[in-house]
Specification:
Blueprint lengths: L15 H9 L13 H5 L10 H9 L3 H5 L12 H5 L6 H14 L5 H13 L7 H9 L13 H14 L1 H4 L6
Helix pairs in contact: 3-6
């Protein structure tokens, strides 16, 4: 277990405006984080992945923009909000992470699996599209073939797709209309 010590943070990599950008984007409570580690120790995803919520919070506080926006760990949060429930300072690490994700997407950094899910939402209106087996099961349970979503209202899907086009979400996730 001879781990290499991490090099010290270089001041020239700190973006002083990045923290302000995070705060203005909706994560204003990040600046009351005391780095106690409760978020990391209570994170169900962190027990099984490399996600260390406290480190993401710390990097945000230090303005380490490149280290955050290019960090794959940013996408390991399942947004369960356990960290918020347990934070002694009322910081909402989930919202901070979601804010950082939005910034990463705007910078062109999004994992391919997330792009594929976004593509499903654009194409079908759902991250998990309904299949024939589910339709049959719904019918046998007297629920109707389709749930009362865009599956039952194709005109609503067209409206959703128009909003997606107007907002440029399709371009952000590199969706190719076919």
């Amino acid at each position: 277990m001879n781990e290499k010590p991490k090099p010290p943070i270089q001041i020239d990599k700190m973006d002083k405006e990045f923290l302000d950008t995070i705060i203005k984007a909706g994560a204003e409570k990040i600046n009351v984080c005391i780095q106690c580690g409760t978020c990391t120790s209570s994170c169900p995803s962190g027990r099984r992945t490399a996600l260390k919520t406290r480190q993401l919070m710390r990097k945000g506080l230090l303005g380490l923009k490149d280290e955050i926006l290019n960090n794959k760990d940013l996408w390991l949060c399942t947004t369960c909000y356990t960290c918020l429930e347990r934070c002694p300072r009322g910081v909402d690490p989930t919202d901070v992470i979601l804010t950082m994700r939005r910034m990463a997407v705007q910078a062109g950094n999004m994992l391919d699996p997330h792009k594929r899910v976004a593509g499903l939402v654009i194409k079908f209106g759902h991250a998990v599209p309904i299949d024939e087996a589910t339709r049959k099961l719904r019918t046998t349970m007297n629920l109707g073939e389709n749930p009362p979503t865009v599956h039952a209202y194709p005109e609503a899907l067209k409206e959703v797709q128009e909003i997606i086009k107007k907002k440029g979400f399709d371009k952000l996730v590199c969706y190719e209309w076919k």
